[in-house]
Structure formats: structure tokens, C-alpha cells
Amino acid sequence: MSSLQRCLPWLILLLVLRGGGGGTAVAAAAARKVPAIIVFGDSSVDTGNNNFIPTIARSNFWPYGLDFADGHPTGRFSNGRLATDFISEAFGLPASIPAYLDTTLTIDDLAAGVSFASASTGLDNATAGILSVITMAEQLDYFREYKLRLKLAKGDARGEEIIREALYIWSIGTNDFIENYYNLPERRMQYTAAEYEAYLLGLAESSIRAVHALGGRKMDFTGLTPMGCLPAERMGNRGDPGQCNEEYNAVARSFNAKLQQAVVPKLNKELPGLHLVYADTYDVLDAVVRKPSDYGFENAERGCCGTGMFEAGYFCSLSTSLLCTNPDKYVFFDAIHPTERMYNMLADKVMNTTLHVFL
């Protein structure tokens, strides 16, 4: 099957959603099928929760957000929206997903979508501890609280319906390897890479089971991207400076294969009513990084911010004189996180995976 054939359902939906009255009808139908997008994960899907906790893992300052609405930095680690924002819009829901810890928002503001994600976290609690961010266990606790608030505001029946019909998205795991396992000695002393991978997959399975027990049924677990090709990892690649760290990429592929071939079918079989899909974003980012010009990008080796080789978070705000003139030409906005344009492409891939299951 050609890439065009694989993407055709999503392209058709996107065209309809952007059309006239018919698009409005389809968007409304999609929203009825998926009344909310509920997100767990790390900086790839954190829409601002870290703004409200004592951590340095933040991005609520310029140049982050320079292409978001009126140029307002929200806490998203990008120049604009994230993949989950585009997915929400495609389902006929709000064009941006709010952060749960934003105290200016009411439960009505969060009823159509919410992110519990926290930048720099991981499936492993030890990863979250490195920069004192929100653990996966705490994200699940916030979800339990959210469910109670939703039922109080909307009534038991409607609250349960939103929880049951919502689409749950996980995007997490990269930090466990690049911030924790390969950067600090403790986990490497306890586990081989394969053993640590198995440990993380067990934690992922437990998180999915927890959300299912609370009523969630439609779930998407996004695989790891080629983390060895992040600009920061290229810079830190001692074996082949400036090139992708292929050891890290092999670990990502192995994790993804086991997630897709073992965890997903096992849970779909064991958990009543569960519709869990695996979304492979590895291939699309890998293809772009290898041949950026084929996709309209000019730079896939450095981020738009600063030198593009190591800056992320506060370091981006310290080197704004070096900011690139057009982020759309860059795959990465900082040395770790994609640009809005790249996130949009990743959203297309996820939507193509989920359409036949959830619409």
C-alpha cells in the first residue's frame, strides 16, 4: 500500500473538516464519537502543567510559543501547537488542549479535553525525580480527581459517558532512556538496556490498566521517536559526533516493537471493551530527519533556538539573538523538541492510525 493510500482517510477527513457546512457536520459527529481528548505523558504533550509546579523544566517564556495564537508562551515546548492540539481540532474539539493544573480554568473548560502531562517525566518515577516533575502515578491521581469533578459538574451519567467515550493518548518513555538510563548510573547498575525496557513496558501496561479500571476504553499509546537523532543526542554522540546515535534508535525500535506486538494485543484481549492502538511516529520522524528536503525542511540536525545543538528550556531564552528566522524550515525548535510544523505531521500519522478505530 502506498503512503498516499495509507494517508487518504485522514486527508479526506481533514479536507472535510476544513470545508463549509458539511465539514461542521462531520466535526460535530466526530466530537460525539470522541467527546474529549485526555492526555498523559511528557514534554511532547505537556501544555503547561509544569508552569504550576516548582521545577526548572519549563517553557512558559519567549521564544517558546512565538507562533501560538498571539505569540503567547503557554508552557508547550515548541514554537506553536503540539500534535495532540492538532488531533483535538481534527476531532471537532478545541484547537488546543488545556493543562489540568491551570488554576484559571474550570471543569467546564476541561470537559472537552485535558492534559495531565509533565515535561521531563517518564514511566519510571525515578525519571520524574531528576527535575522534580509530575510522576505517572500523580498524573493518574489527577485523572481520578478530574473524573470526580466531571461527574459533579455534568452529572453521573454524562460524566461517565465522557470518560468512556474519550480518546486517551500517551506520549512518554523517551526521558526514561535519555535523561535517566543513559545519563545516570543507578538504573544501569540495576538493569541491562533490555531489562529496563521490559520494566518500562510493565509500567506502561499498569498505567493503561489503571485508566481502563476508571472507565477509559479508547486509547492510543504513541511509540518512541528516533531519540538518537535529537540534536542534543547528536551533539552528545561520542562514538560518531554530529551523527544520530544509532544505539539509542535501536532501543526505541525495540521498545516500539514490543509495545505493538506484545502489550497492545495482550491488553485488548484481556480488558473488556478496550480499544487500544499503537501509533508509530518513529518512521515519519526518521524519514524527515534522514531526508528533510523531501518534506520541505532545510535543517534537521539543529534546533531553531540558539545554536540548536544543546539549548532547551531556559537556555533558549538566554540565546534569543540566535533564533532562526523561519521555524517552519526546521524539524526541531530546540535541541530536543519538534517545531509546530513537525508536530502537525506527527499528528497526521497518529490520526491515520486511530481513524478506523474511533470514528
Automatic annotation (TrEMBL):
Gene3D superfamilies: SGNH hydrolase (3.40.50.1110). GO terms for molecular function: hydrolase activity, acting on ester bonds. It comes from the Eukaryota. CDD domains: SGNH_plant_lipase_like. InterPro entries: GDSL, GDSL_lipolytic_enzyme, SGNH_hydro_sf, SGNH_plant_lipase-like. Residues 1-22 form the signal peptide. Keywords: Signal. Belongs to the 'GDSL' lipolytic enzyme family. This is GDSL esterase/lipase. It comes from Triticum aestivum (Wheat). The lineage of its organism: Eukaryota, Viridiplantae, Streptophyta, Embryophyta, Tracheophyta.
